[in-house]
């Protein structure tokens, strides 16, 4: 099902209208067939909620049943080469060209290069965890699918809702920045193309129609073809990489080592505070994991694509940050267009146009890969019916999720039209760090807890050690946020984290071995990822946590009244269908696999 509004032949030979917006396209489940059914579902809400919290999905359901709900398969057209360029295109964009100057000027000074190292290490640890999941669960759901398999529907929904918000906000921020750099390229002031409307609230009264136009164009490209998107991203990223090397080489020619003194004017706290914000510069690589379903050779292509792109990105970020701080004293670095102004300050006015063009290419790639990734997240969420299944339909001709792509792009365009960049930038990192922490936690659960193989004693030990790892990491982060100069707390919390990880490694045997590619040094690497991500959360401001709480609360309301009942009915229908299939094939079947229909 798509949005074009043309007829399409189904497997049964019946022609049906492609564009359909009936109630059954959005709420087809048994609980919504009548008001009586819905009232009964609300009465059963506590029981259903417990079921969804405790029930973990299975690989089979994610790989087969979920994909079947999209009517058509996504085309397997991508190789490791495509994934590397998608990774570079997704990550290297507005973060490096805008936030580097801001954080160097206000938080870290020349030590911003170390902030990028810290953020890069955290992102790389998360990449390892994502990769093991991506090669074994080949669906478009990314972290949502991984968390649903290991931590259950409820945790997966909360996580996925926040990552979708993160994609929309990040896309809007990049689109607004695209307009500013476009104005600079034409030798105008950065706010030249903004339309001020005095009747609107401050912060939402500078309309950006160019950002909306860019979002629409990106949406069309993402809908037409994943492979076509890959080719366009490939070309744009090559140009972008060329400009990055131009900045590094020419910037170092005009460098002055005196600008590196003092190196860390804001000390260690400034370095880590900047790293939490600069984590936004690495956001996007998880979009590559959503393309696992469209990869030709996942066991080889996904590890090379994900890890390769992240290593290259971290190296380039550090070189760019070092170059910027060598060109100018950190106090004089411009917070809006740092690289363009840096070349202007050393007398190379002509270079600012090359930098602006490169930034536009980079941000175009970020928008394109973001549009592809966010649509695939929504596609897989709706396959489980936590969101209306209308979003999950894959167009037979293009092999892309048209509905999901169009809706997510519209949301991005609307926010980009009204909302100023400084408001958007404050919303970005917290959800992503939260998701990455959960993925690392899910990987430990996947390795150590397998239904039917893990004993109750080992499961209890696993739960105990995981709770201690989480508690000690949260305590370390909280102490960092509240104590400006203290150190005694770290002498308590860090050894506890270390002992808990040692206990998990020594006392709990691994119950699952990876089939194609596995994270090395388990449980050390995932445990370190949990600790670092939670630690960086301690450097984020209170307002961001409040916004995180408000959005999570709104998602809970939707989930309790709609998503919970839709996904519950869908899961029971799948188990019922699987049970009867086993009977027809003469296989043994557990009675719990045959679930009675919901009461009318």
How is this structure best described in words?
This protein has 600 residues and is mainly alpha-helical. Helices cover 68% and strands 2% of the residues. The chain contains 23 helices and four strands. Strands 1-2 form a two-stranded antiparallel ribbon.
Descriptive key words:
about 600 residues; mainly alpha; two-stranded antiparallel ribbon; two-stranded antiparallel sheet; 23 helices; about 70% helix; disordered N terminus; disordered C terminus
What global shape is seen? globular
Strand order of the largest sheet: 1-2
Radius of gyration over C-alpha positions, nearest whole angstrom: 25 Å
The proportion of strand residues reads under 5%
Structural class: mainly alpha
**pLDDT under 50 segments (min length 5)?**
1-18, 589-600
Subcellular location: Membrane
Family: Belongs to the amino acid-polyamine-organocation (APC) superfamily. Cationic amino acid transporter (CAT) (TC 2.A.3.3) family.
Membrane topology: Multi-pass membrane protein
Transmembrane segments: 77-102, 114-147, 154-175, 207-225, 232-254, 274-292, 304-330, 350-373, 394-417, 423-443, 463-481, 487-508, 515-536, 548-568
